[in-house]
């Protein structure tokens, strides 16, 4: 448990997505040999979330989230700014 930072114990994971930083901490702790259950307890997250992060890392090779599915927005951010300013 030496690899986990003390700040991890104060984080809460209920019904929110892990940030890329938190995902990196999960992968780092896992690479140090910390069990998924202990990582989940330290992050206050379900162990299935930790398992999914590690499984995704094994498949994709990085901690980033996969691209979202669905229809892209009709207006870009730039279009929105132009429309607001005119």
From TrEMBL:
Q: Which SUPFAM superfamilies match?
A: Homeodomain-like
Under InterPro entries, the record lists: Homeodomain-like_sf, WH-like_DNA-bd_sf
Q: Where is this region: Disordered?
A: 61-86
Gene3D superfamilies hit by this protein: Winged helix-like DNA-binding domain superfamily/Winged helix DNA-binding domain
From which domain of life does this come?
A: Eukaryota
User: Where in the sequence does UniProt note compositional bias of the Basic and acidic residues kind?
Assistant: 74-86
Where along the sequence do coiled-coil regions lie? none
Which Pfam families does the annotation name?
A: HTH_23 (PF13384)
Name assigned to this protein:
Paired domain-containing protein
């Amino acid at each position: 448990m030496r690899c986990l930072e003390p700040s991890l114990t104060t984080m809460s994971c209920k019904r929110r997505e892990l940030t890329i930083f938190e995902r990196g901490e999960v992968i780092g702790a896992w690479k140090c040999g910390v069990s998924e259950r202990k990582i989940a307890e330290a992050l206050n997250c379900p162990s299935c979330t930790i398992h999914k992060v590690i499984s995704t890392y094994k498949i994709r090779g990085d901690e980033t989230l996969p691209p979202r599915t669905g229809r892209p927005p009709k207006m870009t951010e730039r279009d929105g700014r132009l429309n607001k300013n005119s």
